[in-house]
C-alpha cells in the first residue's frame, strides 16, 4: 500500500504529497522555499485543518532555516514576514494560525539565530507528533459512540491525508473498525473538489472498510430510507459555543440529520478551537472550481458561480464534539471551557 503521509520534514525541505493528483497518481512536492509551501496550501496540494497546522509549523521552521541576518532582531523580522505569508494562504482552518504562531513563539525564546532555528524545528516536529497522539485519543473516544452494525455518513476528507496523523472523523470510523465493529460508511463526493470521492474512499478502501460513495445531493434520500444511522464530520474551526465551520455542505447534512432524528457528531482536536473570536472567516474560492473539474468545463463561461469553501453549523444541530479530552455535549460554552481547563 502506498505511503500517504501528507506532509513530512526532510533535511532541506517540506515534503508534501500532492493531493490534487490523488487517487490516480502519487507524487510528492519538495518545497525548498516558504513561497512553495504557501502555493501548495493555496492550491490544496495539502489540505485539511490539522494537516495545514503541521504544514504551517514546518513552513516556519523552513523560514528560519533559510533566513539569514546579522542580528537577532533582523532575523525575527524576516521570519515574521514568512509567518504572515503562511497565515495569508487559507483563512478558515484554525490549526494553520495556531501552529504558525506556536512555532514562531517557540523560536523567539532562542538566544542566537542558530538556537532559534533549532527551536523552530523542534516545535514543528512536536506539533506533528502531538497530532498523531491526539488523533488516536479522540478516535478512541469517538469509537465508543459507534455500535456494531452502524452505518455512518461522512463528508469531505478527515483521515490521515487531512491531519498528518490518524484522522479525526475518519479516525473515529477507522478505530471502530479496528475494534471489530462491522460498520458501513457512506462518503459524500464533496463537490466541488471531490475530497470525499478522491481521498476518503481511497483511505477507506485501504483500511478495508465497506464503503459506498454518494453524490452530495443523495444525502437526504439516504437518510429518509434509513440507510445511515449517524453522521460524523470534521471541523476547520470551532468557536467556544460549539459553532462549527467545516467543508461546504456540512450544514445541509446537519439540518437533514435533525429532520431525520439522526445523531450528528463533529470530531476535532482542541487545536481547531478558537476561543477568542465570535465569528469565523469563510474562505471564498475561485468560480472556476464550480464551473469545471480539473481541466474539464461543466458550465457556460458566462455564468457566475458562488464558491464558499466552508459553511457554519450552529451548536443546536450538533449532538456532540469528539475531542482528545472526551466527547463534549451541550451547553458547549461549559463543556468546551472544561476541556481547555483539563488541557493545562
Ligand atoms: O478545503 P479542505 O479540503 O481543506 O477542507 C477540509 C475539511 O473541511 C475537513 O473536514 C476539515 O479540515 C477537517 S480535517 C480533519
Automatic annotation (TrEMBL):
Which GO biological process categories is it annotated with? L-methionine salvage from methylthioadenosine
- The organism's superkingdom is given as Archaea
Instruction: Give the EC number.
Output: 5.3.1.23
Reactions catalysed? 5-(methylsulfanyl)-alpha-D-ribose 1-phosphate = 5-(methylsulfanyl)-D-ribulose 1-phosphate
Say yes or no: keyword Isomerase present.
yes
InterPro entries recorded: IF-2B-related (IPR000649), IF-M1Pi (IPR005251), IF_2B-like_C (IPR042529), Initiation_fac_2B_a/b/d (IPR011559), M1Pi_N (IPR027363), NagB/RpiA_transferase-like (IPR037171)
Q: Which residues form a coiled coil?
A: none
Explain the purpose of this protein.
Catalyzes the interconversion of methylthioribose-1-phosphate (MTR-1-P) into methylthioribulose-1-phosphate (MTRu-1-P).
Q: What is this protein called?
A: Putative methylthioribose-1-phosphate isomerase
| Native species | Candidatus Marsarchaeota G1 archaeon BE_D
Please name the taxonomic classification of the source: Archaea, Candidatus Marsarchaeota, Candidatus Marsarchaeota group 1
